[in-house]
Amino acid sequence: MIIFNDERCTEYGRTGHPERPQRIARTVPLLKERHPQWEWRRPNAASEEALGRAHTPEHIDAIRSSTTDFDADSPAYANIFDHAARAAGAAIDAARAAVNGERAFSLMRPPGHHATRDRAMGFCYFSNVAVAALDALANGAKRVAIWDFDAHHGNGTEDVVAHHPQIAFASVHQFPGYPGSGTRSFANVTNYPIAPYSPRADHVATVEHSLRKLLAFKPDLLLVSAGFDAYSGDPITQMALELDDFANFGKWLRELDTPTAAILEGGYSDELPELIDAFLTSWS
Ligand SMILES: [Zn+2]
For the chain, how long is the longest CA-to-CA vector? Predict the structure, then answer.
């Protein structure tokens, strides 16, 4: 297992914000202690060219220069452009490692799957997984699948990849819930809305079905928007998954022949380090 991480991703935050530095700062030592054999790499920042495949020039400029918060969830932190470009670059690097036959995980913040082509929202500034998918296609991949099991609809990913003939996207998410979209499937996008407090077994079965359907697309690269906020103990959602379920998601990946990289999205409970470890341990 290769973990892409840059300790600078913990250098920003706002008191009381759930997307907080401790999410990463507490996960790094836990993984290093339990898995001394895993390889840690510092990611490259995404280039303007790579960001520009997913985002408008105006959006890239806004992330670089705005001093006004993008919305109540997405502050205009100092140096947020650099932080967001490193998170997007880590997704690219993880995807490239997967293409080279490694299992790779991007352990970075900010997350990305709510950032649309031209808007930062929901803690997200650049659409990390979509940037990585488009980079892979620009470098020889033919079909990329994106599997998003974060508790929130990956509306930003959907916005960027909709109708792309070489990308298949599936999102399993709470509805009703933030951001309020993801009830409709179309073209290359399959959405699986799940009602709050749905039975755990039903939720897990849906997540498994979404993966099987993506694999029918026969991707040569699978990217995972790995959010851990569908956990029963998460403070900002109403879902029922447990630690063992995330371990099972990792086990399913282990059984695949498809090159796979996972990119951290959400997950706001104090148990996040344990959930990530369960997922990665069973995958590795
Ligand atoms: Zn989420």
Answer: 46
Model confidence pLDDT, tens digit, residues 91-135: 999 999 999 999 999 999 999 999 999 999 999 999 999 999 999
Q: How far is the CA of 41 from the centre of ligand 1 (A)?
A: 25
Quick check: is 152 catalytic?
no
- Residue 140 Cα to ligand 1 middle (Å): 30
Looking at CATH, the fold of the domain delimited by 2-283 is given as: Arginase; Chain A (3.40.800)
The segments of the chain whose pLDDT lies below 50 read: none
Q: Where are the domains of the chain?
A: 2-283
Phi and psi, residue 209, nearest 5°:
-60, -40
Q: Which of 59, 83, 113, 114 is catalytic?
A: 114
Q: For residue 265, how far is its CA from the centre of ligand 1 (angstroms)? A: 6
Q: What is the distance in A from the centroid of ligand 1 to the CA of 248?
A: 19
- Looking at residue 11, what is its pLDDT? 98
H or E, element range at 174: strand 167-174
Whole-number Å distance between alpha carbons of 151 and 167: 21
State residue 263's pLDDT score: 99
Angle at 74 (CA atoms; ends 183, 40), nearest 5 degrees? 95
pLDDT at 6 (0 to 100):
98
